[in-house]
Design a protein that fits this description.
By secondary structure, the protein is α/β, with parallel strands linked by helices. It has helices at 3-15, 23-26, 44-52, 56-66, 90-101, 134-150, 166-178, 181-186, 188-242, 245-287, 290-298, 302-315, 318-342, 359-368, 401-415, 430-440, 476-491, 494-498, 506-527, 538-541, 549-570, 575-581, 593-603, 605-614, 618-638, 647-670; strands spanning 29-31, 40-42, 77-79, 83-86, 116-120, 154-158, 372-375, 378-381, 390-393, 420-426, 449-455, 458-459, 534-535. It has a four-stranded antiparallel β-sheet with strand order 1-2-4-3. It has a four-stranded parallel β-sheet with strand order 6-5-10-11, with helices on both faces. Helix 5 packs across helix 23 (593-603) and helix 14 packs across helix 15. It binds arginine.
Length: 679
């Protein structure tokens, strides 16, 4: 049972005699911070007291009188200024634990309303190697898909590959000028990556070089402005220091304002300076290398040439289409290797190219609806509440990212008719999605709930974007390999191996390293709230201490090790099956606080999943698993399982061990993370 939801519903009823709008007050239920105050606590009476003009304790007395939670709780208590404390009855916990033992999904009930939910995730731009930024959408999207499926929704996953954009213009240009047909044929993936990197470097170089003179101009302007502002601030400060008492307050305020403006102008100077530095670095990177410099001199206008190659491909130029068809399968092989390693798959992979023929139709539909405006030769849609329009076709006839998203939405409605679509995409695209969603209504698609599930950036250990020394992004595969080899050192070091009986052979060690290493990277990503940036620190990720997959996986391995020992001691093959067959509900009783605390943690599994689903926030499930693993560790230290002669103690403890294992296994599985039978 979802206890929080149960309490909210009960409070809703109890509060309805006091207010017409009980829902927000009913929602003020929290897990109690200290077991002293019970298990859950409501602080609704404080705010409600203010609203109805009564003392909070008085309101609390009325609420408690009306509150019907006897099926789950002891008599509610009023504490302090008007908190209501709830303590779950032990019999309810043992009943629930007993129910979980017999339940396929560890007590998690299916959602009340089954929905069809389409999840658009991963969606990398192929033709360039996958980097660490790609991990977020892939891992968060897969976890969301698993969560929604777990509670019975119909989920359709679609990898909206960027397989039709400028990145193909880049490798086509690269191939035509620097490529080698034999190498592409024999060793395509690294060769295409090399061509992408070289051409892209030339683009960056050309753009950086061209931007330098504009940037110098900007710097001059910014410096002049900063000088004026700083003088004004000086003058304002002087005025303030001399002001008569009656005017001193206003003058001080003016001076503060001027000083803030001067600081802002100074920051602007620093920002332009850093832009110049990064442009110079790009120029230097090429010019310091004579071979590269010679290539750059021979190819003075790569950015425009790449756009032309892309446009030719879109227009159906035979040579470029043939190259696209030749390259695309190799690009897919490359990303599929990463997906295999991550254990991620999709129901559909309908890339941007799939929608190419539908793009003119989008413009036509919008035209017919009278939504388009021509602006500077481009076709635009002006939307209420947005400063800039959404461009759907450029002056040269090219379509844009937004046009494809509109065509995709039409297709998805026709073919899948989902209730909801989740777009698991970087926060930096939030403006695009706001505009795009605003178009759904005039297009007659307001019955689909469109959600941008956005996420922040992965940073290096130093808090800056992760780059190699040469400035390119670090490939995802090398990070995965690094995590796996570190996991091997942590989980299979000689000291640990010496304690293993039977000995752990190389195969099992490698399997553990892979499960722990990949799990560590996924968990680190999922355990941060998705909208925050986080630092990629492999050492911390694979550590056995802290909120890591390794810690949670280790707890699981401990439960299995105990079950193996019990099996040997009692000569039973399958301990969980034996337990289910030989235990009655009244044989589950908590005599130690650690037993009760662990049971309560386990019963909260459904609540954690519901909360993670409601906020599209897998980190809530991570936090839950971490708390449960900690409760298990306390239990493990305090309560012996082996060698118990008392049938109640033995069964209760076994039930806790079995269910801890199952909840962790299923919880991690939802997050896309595996477990190991021993570690
Ligand atoms: N390929 C895009 C990128 O890498 C992400 C696509 C997200 N999905 C979408 N329907 N726009 O930025």
């Amino acid at each position: 049972m979802n206890l929080s939801a149960y309490f909210r519903a009960r409070f809703q009823t109890a509060l309805s005699s006091l207010t017409d709008d009980p829902a927000p007050y009913a929602g003020m239920i929290r897990v109690a911070a200290d077991p002293k105050f019970g298990d859950y606590q409501s602080n609704a009476c404080m705010s409600l007291g203010k609203k109805v003009g009564k003392a909070p304790r008085e309101v609390a007395a009325i609420v408690v009188d009306q509150l019907d939670v006897a099926a789950v709780c002891e008599q509610p208590e009023i504490a302090g200024p008007g908190f209501i404390n709830l303590r779950v009855r032990d019999e309810f916990l043992s009943q629930s634990l007993f129910g979980m033992l017999h339940h396929e999904r560890a007590g998690v009930e299916p959602a009340d309303h089954r929905e069809k939910i389409l999840i658009d995730y991963s969606s990398p731009n192929v033709a360039k190697p996958m980097h660490v930024g790609h991990i977020r959408s892939t891992v968060i999207g897969a976890a969301l898909a698993n969560m929604f499926r777990y509670v019975g929704h119909e989920v359709i996953t679609d990898n909206h590959l960027g397989d039709w954009g400028t990145q193909f213009g880049i490798i086509i240009y690269g191939y035509k000028h620097f490529g080698d047909a034999d190498t592409v044929a024999s060793d395509p993936v690294p060769e295409l990556a090399k061509l992408y990197r070289l051409t892209n470097e030339l683009i960056e170089y050309t753009k950086a070089k061209a931007s330098l003179s504009t940037l110098q101009g900007k710097l001059g302007e910014a410096e002049t402005f900063a000088k004026t502002e700083s003088q004004a601030a000086g003058a304002a400060a002087e005025t303030a220091s001399k002001a008569a008492e009656s005017e001193s307050k206003a003058a001080a305020k003016e001076s503060k304002k001027a000083s803030k403006a001067a600081q802002a102008a100074q920051r602007r100077v620093a920002a332009v300076q850093s832009e110049i530095e990064s442009a110079k670095a790009k120029v230097d990177a090429v010019e310091a290398d004579p071979k590269l410099a010679a290539i750059a001199a021979e190819h003075p206008d790569v950015p425009a040439a790449v756009l032309r190659e892309t446009a030719k491909m879109h227009e159906g130029d035979a040579e470029n289409r043939a190259l696209w068809e030749k390259f695309l399968p190799h690009c897919k092989d490359e990303i599929n290797r990463v997906y295999d390693r991550l254990g991620v798959s999709f129901d559909h992979t309908l890339g941007e190219s799939f929608y190419h023929d539908r793009l003119p139709g989008v413009v036509e539909t919008l035209d017919k609806l009278g939504l388009t405006t021509e602006s500077d030769g481009a076709v635009c849609v002006f939307l209420e509440g947005f400063e800039s329009p959404m461009i759907i076709q450029k002056r040269d006839g090219a379509y844009l990212y937004a046009t494809t998203d509109l065509a995709t939405l039409q297709y998805r409605q026709e073919v899948f008719a989902p209730h909801r679509i989740l777009y698991v995409v970087d926060s930096r695209q939030s403006e695009h999605f706001e505009k795009f969603f605003a178009m759904a209504e005039p297009l007659g698609m307001n019955d689909i709930d469109l959600v941008h599930v956005q996420f922040g950036t992965v940073l290096g250990k130093d808090g800056r974007p992760m780059k190699t020394r040469s400035g390119s992004l670090i490939g995802l595969e090398s990070l995965l390999n690094d995590a796996v080899s570190r996991a091997q050192q942590v989980a299979c070091n000689p000291e640990r191996l010496a304690t293993m009986d039977p000995p752990m052979l190389a195969d099992e060690q490698n399997q553990i390293a892979e499960t722990v290493g990949i799990g560590a990277i996924k968990y680190a990503d999922l355990s941060h709230h998705r909208t925050t940036d986080y630092r990629f620190d492999v050492e911390k990720m694979v550590a056995l201490e802290g909120n890591t997959a390794t810690y949670v996986q280790y707890s699981y391995a401990r439960t299995q090790s105990i079950l193996r020992r019990v099996a040997a001691e009692m000569s039973i093959d399958d301990v969980p099956a034996w337990l289910v067959e030989n235990t009655t509900e009244d044989q589950l009783q908590f005599r130690e606080p650690a037993e009760r605390a662990l049971a309560l943690a386990l019963v909260r599994f459904e609540e954690a999943i519901d909360a993670a689903i409601a906020a599209y926030a897998p980190n809530q499930l991570c936090d839950y698993l971490f708390e449960t693993a900690k409760a298990y560790s306390t239990f493990n230290d305090a309560c012996r399982v082996l060698g118990n002669t008392d049938p109640v103690v033995l069964r209760t403890r076994l039930a806790l061990v079995v269910m801890t294992g199952r909840v962790i296994e299923q919880g991690l599985q939802i997050l896309g993370i595996g477990v190991c039978e021993r570690m």
